[in-house]
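AraC family transcriptional regulator
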Amino acid sequence: MEKQDQGKDWILRTQSSGVERIEAFFHGSGYAMHRHDTYALGITMAGVQSFQYKKSLRNSLPGNTMALYPDEPHDGQAGTEVGFRYRMLYVEPSVLQDALGGVALPYIEGGISTDPRMFHALRNLLEQMDGNVEPLQQDDGIFELAAAMDAVSGKRPRRHAADFHAAQQAREYIHASLDRTLTLDELAQACGRDRWSLTRDFRSFFGTSPYRYLSMRRLDMARRLMTQGKSLVTVAAMTGFADQSHMTRLFTKTYGIAPARWLRMVQPVK
């Protein structure tokens, strides 16, 4: 994504698998009163983001999350002269409902939350604005977001019966699929479970999500191949990443150091 001129108002937009993402910067008035038939879920990145919602003026600061309920009128404007920058996710209620499993849609009082669960779940979905999001990664993020919204809305936690056999099958299937794109639908079909039940199963028994587990196993393989002398381009292709930059971003985020630097620093045990 190219850097934008902060002196002008701008909007960047991407769409993947029915989920729309935008990043935007505005001085003054951004939007007149309007409404969506989707959830509008966002994070304020800089400045003060002000909007009329439920007959009151709301002010979102960096680190806050916005969760506007479907079909609720709202506008948008800068709360200070320096303008505001934000990222927003528009997601159909049915997408979250699939993950929630038939309960009432979560409602966040006031449209703004300071709960870190909401912020982290939404930030993970909004990190990549280039549309290069793997299907399993997006499904994983949607599940986390739905769970966070359900928890933050104040509902009583619900228990579910977890299927260890299905989770174990999913784990084995992931190990056999490290070098290619894997979807949650494919994984669920292989294990004989519906997609969201399998996600819950996997988290219950292995402590992480299917996509996170897949990513970590890919990185394990990548490190082995790197120490064997394979080039970073070759390693990325052999471990199922979209390209070298995709692998580098995840490697750096996970280990706090870029793969090329890690490779220069790592020493074999004698």
